[in-house]
Design a protein that fits this description.
alpha+beta, Immunoglobulin-like, 2 domains, seven-stranded antiparallel beta sheet, binds 2-acetamido-2-deoxy-beta-D-glucopyranose, Late embryogenesis abundant protein LEA-2 subgroup domain-containing protein, transmembrane helix, membrane, LEA_2
């Protein structure tokens, strides 16, 4: 009897080992299956939605009343920023849209009034017409001297920066909130009255 008991315990043990192995196999197999299914879902979503990048372009820029006194600047910028959503199935919801005019890397001249939130339909291009006013903007000595030189030369080079919160909407379902940053640089604005007509559009680098 003892040998049989030993044998049966032996069988029981090896049976337990076998079933543990098959449980592990089953878990691994279902994890692999889940990965494959998730991959297929992502692939089908990608093929159906075909997401394309959103494009920002400064298509018009005019500066008026540019004056520099000491290290303070007055100026009024009229900008047109074209926002192109080329997607067939994705619409956009924008929040906290801000357009700023910078002189150099870190000297902010003016902030534009933009509709803070709006919805952009699919395959839509919208031109945002904004006015940004610098009122006694303190820019520091160096930037002020450079700006005076630019004004004397008849052309000011600024950076236009766009910042917005954005949600992508596909089939009525909105994605989470992403922070979009666009930098359009350099935007060369001629100061002569006829300069606006020869303005060359400046595409923006957009990061999400
Ligand atoms: C800017 O405009 C303000 C009035 O809005 C005026 O007091 C100031 O002297 C102006 N500064 C420059 C640099 O022209
Ligand atoms: C783009 O969408 C806006 C509404 O957000 C609409 O007023 C405008 O007409 C649309 N433009 C085109 C070209 O469809």
């Amino acid at each position: 009897m003892p040998p049989a008991a030993t044998r049966s315990r032996g069988i029981g043990e090896s049976g337990g080992h076998a079933s543990r192995v098959s449980v592990v196999r089953c878990i691994v197999a279902s994890m692999l299956a889940a990965v494959v299914v998730a991959g297929l879902v992502a692939l089908v979503f990608w093929l159906v939605v075909r997401p394309k990048p959103i494009e920002y372009t400064v298509t018009r820029a005019v500066a008026r009343h540019v004056s520099v006194t000491g290290d303070a600047v007055n100026a009024t910028f009229y900008l047109t920023v074209a926002v192109d959503n080329p997607n067939r199935r994705v619409s956009m919801r924008y929040d906290n849209v801000e357009i700023r005019v910078f002189y150099g890397e870190d000297t902010q001249l003016a902030v534009a009034d933009v509709a803070p939130s709006w919805h952009q339909p699919r395959r839509n291009e919208t031109a945002l017409q904004v006015r940004a006013v610098a009122r006694s903007a303190a820019v520091g000595e160096r930037a002020a001297r450079e700006l005076e030189r630019d004004v004397a030369a008849g052309e000011v080079a600024v950076d236009v920066r766009v910042s917005a919160g954005v949600r992508f909407v596909v089939g009525g379902v909105a994605s989470r909130y992403y922070h979009l940053r666009g930098t359009c640089s350099p935007v060369n604005i001629g100061l002569s009255p006829s300069a606006a007509r020869s303005f060359k559009s400046v595409p923006c680098d957009v990061e999400i």
